[in-house]
Amino acid sequence: MFLAGVFLSSAQQLEDTIENWRAKFSSLSDFVYRSKNANWIGIRKVSKLHGDSIFVVNTKDQGQTVYRIMNSQLTFLNEVGVLGKKGQQVVFLNLITGNTFNFDNIIDVYPLQQQNRFGLLSNDHSLRFYDSTGKQLFEIANVGNLAATDSKNTIYLNRQYDSKSEIIETTGSQQKVLYKTENKIRKISLIETGKHLLVLETAQNNDQDRLVLLEAGKSGKTVLQLDISKNAVAKLTPIQNGDSFLISTCVEGQPQDNTLVDIWYGNDPYVNEHFKKPTHQRFWLWHPKRNKLQNIPVPENFEVGSINNDRYFLTYLPRRGHNFITSEPELNAAQIYDLKLNSYRDIGNVKLARQIGKEWPELLNHSIYTSSDGRWFVASHDGLRWSLYRPDGNKVTTIEKEGLEQPVFSSNSENIYFESVDGLWTFNIGLKKLTALDIGRGKITKIKNYTLKIDDYTAISFLPTEKLLAEIKDRDENVISYQLLKRGKIYQVIPSTKNRIHKLIYDPAMTSFSTLEENFNLPPTLYAYAKPNEKKLLFDGSIKDNGVKKIKQEMYKYSAAGKNLSGILYYPANFDPAKKYPMIVRIYDMQRHLSNSYLSPNKSLPDGSQLRTLLERGYFVFLPDTTVGDKGPGLSALECVHKALDAALKNSFIDKEKIGLFGQSYGGYKTDFIATHSDRFAAYISGAGISDIINDFYSYTHGFNKPLYFIYNTVYQMNTTPANDKARFLANNPILSVERVNAPILLWTSNKDRTVPPTQTMEFYIGLRRYKKDVVALFYQDGNHSFPDGTPEQVDLSKKVLDWWDYFLKGKKDIAWISKQMRKDAL
Q1: CA 335, 337, 339: angle at the middle one, nearest 5?
Q2: What's the pTM value of the predicted model, to 2 decimals?
């Protein structure tokens, strides 16, 4: 259906026609399930017309075997079966025979991988076990609502029996009582190593609760008992694969909703977040083999973090010096505590390093990264360079090169690999030598197969084997490839492609690879790479979208704000070179990465736009890069967009008198600013944007639970304050030039937006109204910062967005809700 040629008698018919047209198109989801050896891939096919379903694809026979089951969350049972759960419905598919078995009233699913059987906990509180043929093998009645499993051989359950709480161990063919107590059991969990079961008990006649550790999979004997604070939570962090454990307990804070008055202190690092401040903290080191428990004494309110060593620990006062200037509290005045000598060594303030490939400074999630054997850790004191430490806090060296990002220790802890925007680097610890590897030079390079075990400010980051799988992305050309480093040699596993690779799926040995790929004119499709240059279709979901293959895309290069930038131009569907067409410009930040994003009719950007629908309705759509230069975010965006227009308007088919600009959130701010400084647009749409950056700088957001001034060091890249650079803040503030807006503007937001306060939209609306500008503002009662596809807010906004463009760029003046503003006699 060519929507631009459809004439309808009412707005409702228009909406219904668009929705019916969109409903005809299906797509594959970018969420992929994988069996243990990657012999099978599960993927969801999304269809508004026929309903969603799951397809399970055999990668070993090149997709010749494909099964379809109900839309559900998948759990593979090795390579022989797969369980799908949706609500209380469960389906089991035998991958060998293709037989399916359906079960109802199921609360939870427990696979036992090593036995090729599974347990189903039903709402009659019975746990029943089945083999891969669907035959019931065993049943346990009167099961409680707590369970833990290693997913291999054993499930641990709680049960009330004879006024006592029991923990039962079962393998699916037999059961035994592992533990009994007079107390109520409030939590059971299997420790990460799988060797111990953690039990938390609520003592009935005591002001303390109890932590119990049981030996799992053997005798089930009790190996540790600890009295802990009432209602305390507990965490066991394995050190060097469970040779020892850091045990920490605390009572978590609770939000206080019914207080007479909230008191906010200017020196309070927990302002409005006291529920994040724990109390009654205790720390111990436990050695299972020696069954030795050592108290770790630290000052009150201090935290203890693992650096994967049983003698040395990170200690710090949380949020010391935190004034919300950074998005997350930094690790200040950190120390290494020596448990043997009961001594401390200062390592100073630790900064978060920059995360790879972001246009604005987005930071890594952890401050300290340790090796798998606990012999080394790295930290940054300036956010730019890494320093190498021994576990006792003695600094070995500082790696002077800036721009090294995610650190990953080699499997033998002799080298550290670093991701970067300039290829892959390795640091030889023994030689203290940094070397650029011949992988991804000049390109964004990431490591795909490393293990990351997190513990608040620290993380163990290492390669589990000697192999390293690297993703290499050319950001300028939007090209991606994958290489494997093995025994010093580099092997190409996925050759360079302009397709977007949503998922890379591979077996544990990294000998076979599959991908989920798409492009602007290619719906998501599964491919197999038996060899680097042997790409074979696995599964395309029988997606029918012939129209997308006809869409034409052009890239335009330009320079602005000191950078080389690109813009993506899409031609209207059924393009006629004898005509001129209106153009809609969508802005946010860098957008070149969207050049290979599938133009699904059902893909709705957060700003309510549907790019594919706009193309079908006869518009050019232009997605230019914008960036931040020395002038600031608003003036830089203005320069970028004007330079982008200069480049795109060399295309004579664009009607330069009929161009619209829109953006949401950060793009909404830029749209507001450009609307106050440009005369090149016929209409604007701005969604949930910041219109007053000084007001916003000094505002508080309940979405992030913090003052908003932190984003001016990240997204907005001002890197200063209004007090220190009033001129630049004033020059980049849209509201101060609101009287200069010279084209109609549609504003929208949600009154429940917890990211950008809706008062920002209201302020811009009030300014426009005061100066008698043509403005319509939409204040939705529900939704949040953006509206998910299919919600009433999204459906309504999408319709109004199309109306707005049709009215101002195509001259369709029979749209009543817009005419109410534009017709001067309408009042």
Answers
A1: 180
A2: 0.93
